[in-house]
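Reopening this one. Same input as before:
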Amino acid sequence: MAKVKPPFRLAVAAAFLDGAPHGMAEILDLLQKNYAGEKICTPANIEDSLQSLKAVGILTIPPGDSPEARYALSRNGRERTLKALGC
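Same output, byte for byte:
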C-alpha cells in the first residue's frame, strides 16, 4: 500500500520537527523528494506556506543574523503539527 503524503502546508511545518531553523531553500530540498514532479513544490509556494504558517503562529523567526529568512517551529506550532500528523 502506498504511503499517503500529508497536505503540502502540513509537510512544510513537519519539516521543522527536527528542531532546527530552516530557510526556504532547505525546505525546498527536503520536500522535493516527496513531491517530485508536482507543480506545488516551488520556491514561491514554499515561501507562501512559510509566511502563512508564521502568520498563524506555527512558525517563528528566531533571532540572529542571516542573509536568508530562517524559520523555526514555535512550541504551539510543534504541538499542532504533531497533532495534525496523528502523533
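So the earlier flakiness isn't reproducible anymore. For the record, The radius of gyration is 13 Å.
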